[in-house]
Amino acid sequence: MKYALIGCGRISPNHIAAAKANDLEIGAICDVSPANMRDKKLKFDLADTVKQYTDYHEMLEKEKPELVAIATESGKHAQIALDCMDYGCNLIIEKPIALSIEDADKIIGKARRLNLKVCACHQNRFNKSIQKIREAVDKNRFGRMFYGTAHIRWCRDHEYYDRAAWRGTWEQDGGALMNQCIHNIDLLRWMMGDEIEEVVGMTDRLNHDYIEAEDLGIALIKFKNGAYGIIEGTTDIYPRNLEETLYLFGEKGTVKAGGQSVNIIEEWRFSDMLDDPEDVKKRFHENPPNVYGYGHTPLYADVIEAIEKDRQPYVDAEAGKRALELVLAIYQSAATGSIVRLPLIQCRTEDFRGRFNV
């Protein structure tokens, strides 16, 4: 299967490694920076047959890939995705899938019309720990779910934002919730039943006056099944990343996933006693070198199979929209000081331009 990558920045090594691990034919890479492409080509010893393009339209026209991964700045995801589908490409879109509800809907609609597969790259769903927890949810081992919490306590310093001017802007990124926290926000919504009734949020910019968006977000969520959710996300932790944790509390079960990227099961308690907690903690434990984890490779494998078997990817475009919608709902609640009821019909990050201007 012929593959191409658009965007050769910070996350691109995970995509290239996943493409190679799944034996994809890497036909081309594309970036506005030739230096970025040269760096990745050398790092991964890509063959001379892997072409380099600074214009993705030219790349699509000449290379005609079957599968394209989009790993550019977030604000460009939607337009690139829509353009790629015009060339018949299936897609893996880095999170977030878009920066507006309208654009997410356009992606979903076009993929349906053209029968193309679109995957939102929420790779943490493929963590061993998360797959084990999801199995317990699907088997109703928790019983009635009471509430869940997602905590993302990370650090992003001035140097991080200086490396790319789009970071922290409303037009191309959003803040901590949209960029750093959306993976765990996705997991919380997915585990707790997906359907949300209302959201209350507060956001602030406490320690990064050189960006436009928030560095702290806190939210309460009421799910339609009667359960509740709590989100706490920040990039203000000193002096380095502390943790990303997910708690699930039910009538018959309690689980905590922690580590750098919810890759370790730290608590496993169920009334049915179907498995040994210590054995579960040992067997479903990963220690990735960074917060990106190991999920890209199985995510790619799933997308490849989805294309070959004409089914939806495990993490489809609708899932990407749901994660986006929850972040936007928190932003909207924080900006208006009111409860926001879902679904959102229209909302985009740029609606909050000037939110923290003094």
Number of domains: 2
In round numbers, the mean pLDDT is: 97
The dominant shape is globular
Helix/strand order, N-terminal first? EHEHEHEHEHEHEHHHEEEEEEHHHE
CATH architecture of the largest domain: 2-Layer Sandwich
Number of helices: 12
CATH superfamily of the largest domain: Dihydrodipicolinate Reductase, domain 2
Q: Widest sheet: strand order?
A: 13-12-11-7-10-9-8-14
Low-confidence segments:
none
- Helix share, percent: 25-40%
Note the main sheet: 8 strands, mixed
First and last CA, distance: 51 Å
DSSP, total strands: 14
- Beta-strand content: 15-25%
CATH class of the largest domain: Alpha Beta
| Rg of Cα set | 20 Å
CATH topology heading of the largest domain = Dihydrodipicolinate Reductase, domain 2
Which structural class best describes the helix and strand composition?
Answer: alpha/beta
Summary?
The protein has helices at 12-21, 34-43, 56-63, 77-86, 101-114, 128-138, 158-162, 176-179, 182-191, 277-283, 296-309, 317-336; strands at 2-6, 25-30, 51-53, 67-70, 90-94, 118-121, 145-153, 196-204, 216-223, 228-234, 243-250, 253-258, 264-270, 340-341. The chain is built from 12 helices and 14 strands. The mean pLDDT is 97.
